[in-house]
UniProtKB/TrEMBL annotation:
This is DNA polymerase III subunit delta. Residues 216-335 form the DNA polymerase III delta subunit-like C-terminal domain. It comes from the Bacteria. Its EC number is 2.7.7.7. Belongs to the DNA polymerase HolA subunit family. It catalyses: DNA(n) + a 2'-deoxyribonucleoside 5'-triphosphate = DNA(n+1) + diphosphate. It is an enzyme of class 2 (transferase). It comes from Scopulibacillus cellulosilyticus. Keywords: DNA replication, DNA-directed DNA polymerase, Nucleotidyltransferase, Transferase. GO terms for molecular function: DNA-directed DNA polymerase activity. NCBIfam families: holA (TIGR01128). Residues 18-139 form the DNA polymerase III delta N-terminal domain.
Length: 340
């Protein structure tokens, strides 16, 4: 289920146990810090905050600490990290954990302690008794999907910390360049905010001027240029990528992938799927589907099938050595631009 701004609000009274799991490491860190800051003052953190890595330390050590009364303050915070025993994943750790002691603590947690379980795993193993006990007794956050509105709000708040104004148009352009990687997005917004301050909004022009582009997003721009018949710009970008020592075979694979996404979105559109449904089926960020939807409207299914066929032909030429790789890629750009 997608997160909302309300889900990220930490209020008192605090839960005795929190579980934060999922692949959104930035969000996990954000909520962990919010919980800690609600529980402890800056001075209390020196005495009442501790962290235990379950791949290095037995769970009993963390539980013993959690059962200890706080020193100079009302609360103690104990953080448990890498609890691989909550998942179906295997670990190379040789540490033995007496999980019965953990189960007993969950059933009767210390009122003076806030226990935070940090699990950078996509899923917890709900078949396990320990996981069932833990999720029932705790405030649990599954930090995986988040709404577009919440993503914008999180980045807007980062900009506000530097007295900068983060705009919607800048946000959409940044997503187009970087993709939905929250940690990367946050770092980019910090960079823009430091540059702009109060003097200039973080708009499309700033993102284009200062934004870092991943290889995948450069290829996305390349395909977009080809589809818009901006052949000269496409050749220029391709040249830049080749000068950066990007392998033609890898570039071709990414071009093929982007065209395949547009083709799949085209098929789903014809079947009446919403952008949200398409994003879920294709396991893509909704903004990527939104862009692909716009591209799909400009080409019919036959055009896209022809484009994929030309990509496959270029791949064959590269791999059997019948054509020099860079030349095959340049000819592919020419052929794609001639479609329709």
């Amino acid at each position: 289920m997608a997160l909302t701004q309300k889900d990220l609000t930490i209020n008192k009274p605090l839960s005795p146990i929190y579980v934060l799991f999922g692949k959104q490491s930035y969000l996990i860190q954000l909520i962990k810090d919010k919980i800690i800051n609600q529980a402890l003052t800056q001075e209390e953190k020196d005495f009442n905050l501790s962290s235990y890595n379950m791949e290095e330390t037995p769970i009993e050590a963390a539980i013993e600490d959690a059962e200890t009364l706080p020193f100079i303050g009302e609360k103690r915070v104990v953080v448990i990290e890498n609890p691989y025993f909550l998942t179906a994943e295997r670990s190379k750790s040789k540490v033995e954990h007496h999980l019965k002691q953990f189960e007993k603590y969950i059933e009767s947690p210390s009122p003076g302690t806030v226990l935070i379980v940090i699990a950078f795993y996509e899923k917890l193993d709900q078949r396990k008794k320990l996981v069932k006990l833990l999720t029932k007794a705790s405030k649990t956050y599954e930090l995986s999907q988040l709404t577009d509105d919440l993503l914008f709000k999180l980045l807007e708040n980062i900009a506000l910390d530097y007295d900068a104004h983060y705009t919607k148009e800048g946000h959409e352009q940044l997503l187009a360049l970087v993709g939905p990687h929250l940690t990367y997005l946050a770092n980019e917004v910090k960079k823009f905010a430091l540059y702009c301050g109060k003097d200039h909004p973080i708009d499309k022009s700033i993102v284009n001027e200062l934004g870092a582009r991943s290889l995948e997003n450069n290829v996305f721009s390349l395909v977009d240029m080809v589809m818009r018949k901006q052949t000269a710009n496409a050749y220029h970008l391709l040249n830049d990528l080749l000068k950066q020592k990007e392998e033609p075979v890898r570039l071709l694979a990414l071009i093929s992938r982007q065209i395949r996404i547009v083709y799949q979105v085209s098929l789903f559109q014809n079947e009446g799927y919403t952008q949200k449904q398409m994003a879920a089926k294709l396991k893509l960020h909704p903004y990527a589907v939104k862009i692909a939807s716009g591209q799909a409207k400009a080409f019919n299914r036959q055009d896209l099938e022809r484009a994929l066929s030309q990509c496959a032909e270029a791949d064959y030429q590269m791999k059997n050595g019948s054509m020099e790789k860079t030349l095959a890629l340049e000819l592919l750009i020419h052929k794609l631009a001639q479609i329709k």
